[in-house]
From TrEMBL:
GO terms for biological process: establishment of competence for transformation. Signal peptide: none annotated. It holds the Pfam family Competence. It is a multi-pass membrane protein. It comes from Idiomarina rhizosphaerae. Residues 528-619 form the Metallo-beta-lactamase domain. One of its GO terms (cellular component) is plasma membrane. It is found in: Cell membrane. This is DNA internalization-related competence protein ComEC/Rec2.
Length: 765
């Protein structure tokens, strides 16, 4: 059966390799009909089994292709029509998620019942995520309520950079098909969901750690503080803040014991007791309770994934099916992909599958511990196995992993499993009828947290605990290969100790030699950060930053979602940063990056080393020079903020790049007048100033720089229409090409100091 499942999974995954959904739906259907006919012909003619097997495998393959494309087509059917995008429309929204309030707006998510006067059937109702600005005086919409809203809808966009968070993909994974801004609205109904009632109860219960209880009971993580998230991540406990298989297993175990207790306590006749299969009915009851627990978490993606895995394993237990761990793992993966064909795009899927594989591996490779403290010994072995197996993925997703995680998990997980979770869920049940008793149970549940928090803080702050491989001066691929090689060396079934030692010594060396491809070239990356600017110059594993992108009022930061992941992706260590000027689209990520990289040297606006024309320096075999502003204009404050932008020229051997910030034509003219010779501005690459505004990029500047290519950082913005047509006309007169981040995503120039080339990693993607 394993080969059938592998072929089916291959068919599902192949659906993501093409864009013509209808074509493949038709082709798959026709192919299945033809193959079914051929299979029937072989059956009645009693042909060889081998021929029929090939036909059946092809049928399974096209079943996978059909299922994958059917899901894609279902997504397309639920999408909001393009003609409604960018226009104000009226809709009726059923709020189905806990709304969040930010300093300047609130965010609500729900299902659209009526769109532009048209009542939508239930199966075609899309989910949308809406922002309501200037709503501090408004009541926060609650899950379960129905609202009539005037909104302006828009499509979500991605920042297309290596390592960047894929926002649009994230929204689609959560079945959100559009974003929007609320202009006005009124509440139609006030009935709230049980999940919202529990959330409100936890929030109003005066608890010291409401975020942890909300995460464990209803899967809502909005109350978690950033400090708590960081501490639990750095101690290897982040997985326990999501409703995972561990939580489902504990709930299932409690449900089974409760059912058996009731079965033995209730007055049931002996004949009935003999007729009923207590094992089967207790497991069925456990499955129902676990599904209800998943419903409390609103059947989120991670919860559905964990529930699917749990139910598959439970079904095998009920049916007494004996399989080797790899076969069971394959069935688990197939079930998850049937329920959610796009699960493989989610990093959480790989974390879950890897963890499950590690547990199966433990039952396969090692015999159970015996004797005194056998349970503790078994848990201890599993924790170290999880550390070894999960470390490569933890490094890829979080930038490092906790070396103390096995010890922390061994002592903290029992507290969560046998104290915090049961009491929190008991309080949740009492929240149905008596909030006072519910609060009492919640307060009892969080008692250990107050004692554990100082200890976890100390462990998280210990420098020996968190191993950050991003500090290694090698490529990201080399670091991952070393970790993967170490994992393989520890887990491969070799029989002798010296063989394992040889693997430990050889595999990392081979991986390092193969993947460490630092070539000594300069790489200039203009990152796709929308209507803002962030530039990374890298060489030999070190990086210089010019501007840090925007930070929005909601707390969303380009530095956190784009720049840091990009640096981690390439294994870069930032050493020097320039801020051209103080506008938040250039300076928004400074505080985040200063906290993340305390060793980073800052120059430019709001630093102790402001830009002054004539400043020069050398960094990593490259020369940088500040051309503007001159001290006279800087001190006299005669220029606007844009025109006081730091103008840099960075050169490496015979290659140079001109980085002018947001200067406008007046500053461009003064800059050129301040130069001894116009050739001082000559460069191979020019980053177009001020995102292509009509007030910048004058013809004299273009003539002085005389670049071979022009790069432009800009995005779609309702208040601007960049690049302006006047700017484009001037660029066309140079007869040199220009490339923008809005259309091409990340722009990368690679130079050995003599020649250069342009790379567009996300062109046409």
């Amino acid at each position: 059966m394993d080969r059938w499942l592998l072929v089916f999974i291959g068919g599902i995954l192949s659906a993501s390799l093409h864009s013509d959904i209808k074509f493949w739906l038709i082709v798959s259907t026709i192919a299945l009909l033809l193959l079914a006919t051929v299979n029937a012909f072989f059956y009645f003619r009693q042909r060889e089994v081998k021929q029929r097997t090939i036909v059946l495998l092809l049928m399974v393959l096209f079943c996978g292709i059909l299922w994958g494309n059917a899901n894609l087509y279902w997504q397309k059917l639920r999408a909001i029509p393009d003609e409604l995008m960018g226009n104000e429309v009226q809709l009726t929204l059923v709020v189905d998620e806990i709304s969040r309030r930010y300093p300047f707006h609130l965010r609500m998510t729900g299902r659209v019942e009526v769109l532009a006067g048209k009542v939508l059937p239930f199966w075609q109702q899309p989910r949308v995520q809406l922002n309501w600005y200037n709503s501090h005086h408004k009541q926060v919409p609650k899950a379960g309520e129905r609202w009539q809203l005037e909104v302006k809808l828009k499509q979500a966009t991605d920042y297309r950079n290596q390592g960047s968070f894929r926002y649009r993909q994230y929204l689609l994974r959560n079945n959100i098909y559009s974003l929007g801004t609320v202009k006005d609205g009124e509440k139609l109904t006030s009935l709230i969901s049980f999940r919202q009632k529990i959330f409100d109860g936890i929030k109003q219960a005066n608890l010291s750690e409401p975020g942890i209880l909300a995460a464990l009971t209803i899967g809502e993580r909005s109350l978690l503080t950033s400090a708590t998230r960081e501490i639990w991540k750095r101690t290897g406990l982040a997985h326990s803040l999501a409703i995972s298989g561990l939580h489902l297993g504990m709930v299932a175990g409690a449900a089974t014991l409760f059912f058996r207790f009731c079965f033995h306590c209730f007055p049931i006749s002996l004949q009935t007791r003999e007729w009923l299969n207590i094992r089967l009915w207790s497991l069925a009851f456990a499955a129902i309770v676990v599904s209800g627990y998943a419903g409390l978490a609103d059947f989120s993606i991670s919860t559905v994934r964990a529930l699917t895995m749990f139910l598959v394993v439970l079904l095998h237990i009920v049916l007494n099916l004996k399989l080797n761990p790899l076969s069971l793992l394959l069935r688990v993966v197939t079930a998850v992909l049937v329920v959610d064909v796009f699960a493989w795009q989610d990093p959480g899927f790989w974390l879950s599958i890897t963890a499950v594989a590690a547990l199966f591996l433990a039952s396969w490779r090692w015999s159970k511990s015996r004797g005194r403290f056998s349970a503790v010994k078994g848990l201890w072995s599993i924790q170290w196995l999880l550390l070894v197996v999960m470390s490569p993925l933890s490094f890829l997703l979080f930038g490092g992993f906790s070396l103390f995680a096995p010890v922390v998990n061994l002592f903290v997980l029992p507290v969560i499993s046998f104290w915090l979770l049961p009491l929190a869920l008991t309080g949740t049940v009492f929240a149905l009828c008596d909030s006072g008793i519910a609060v009492l149970f919640w307060q009892l549940a969080e008692l250990p947290v107050s004692y554990l928090t100082p200890l976890l803080e100390a462990i998280a702050g210990c420098s020996a605990n968190w191993l950050e491989l991003n500090q290694w001066p090698i490529t990201r691929a080399a670091r991952f290969a070393v970790l993967f090689a170490l994992t393989a060396a520890l887990l491969l079934p070799v029989s002798r100790g010296w063989q394992r030692l040889a693997l430990l010594l050889c595999l990392p060396v081979v991986a390092f030699s193969f993947f460490n491809q630092r070539d000594g070239k300069l790489r200039l990356h203009v990152l796709d950060v929308g209507q803002s600017q962030a530039v990374v110059i890298e060489k030999d594993g070190k990086a210089m930053l010019i501007d840090t992108g925007i930070e929005f009022n909601s707390g969303f930061s380009v530095a956190e979602s784009v720049i840091e992941p990009f640096l981690n992706y390439h294994g870069l260590r930032p050493e020097l940063a320039f801020i051209s000027h103080g506008d938040r689209d250039h300076n928004g990520g400074r505080d985040f990056l200063r906290q993340r990289y305390p060793q980073l040297e800052w120059r430019g606006d709001s630093s102790d080393k402001p830009c002054r024309a004539g400043d020069k320096g050398e960094w990593n075999s490259m020369q940088w020079e500040t051309l503007w502003p001159t001290p006279a204009y800087q001190d006299a404050n005669r220029l606007s903020k844009n025109n006081r932008s730091c103008v840099l020229r960075v050169s490496y051997k015979d290659f140079s790049v001109f980085l002018p910030g947001d200067i406008e034509m007046m500053a461009e003219q003064l800059l050129l007048e301040s130069l001894h010779e116009l050739s001082e501005a000559s460069s191979d690459v020019l980053l177009i100033p001020h995102h292509g505004s009509k007030t910048s990029t004058s013809w004299p500047l273009l003539q002085a720089v005389d670049a071979d290519v022009y790069l432009l950082s800009y995005g779609k913005h309702k208040g601007y229409d960049f690049p302006h047509r006047y700017t484009l006309e001037r660029l066309s007169r140079t007869q040199k090409p220009w490339f923008g981040t809005k259309d091409s995503g990340q722009l990368t120039i690679v130079s050995d100091g003599n020649t250069w080339s342009l790379e567009l990693p996300f062109e046409n993607r």
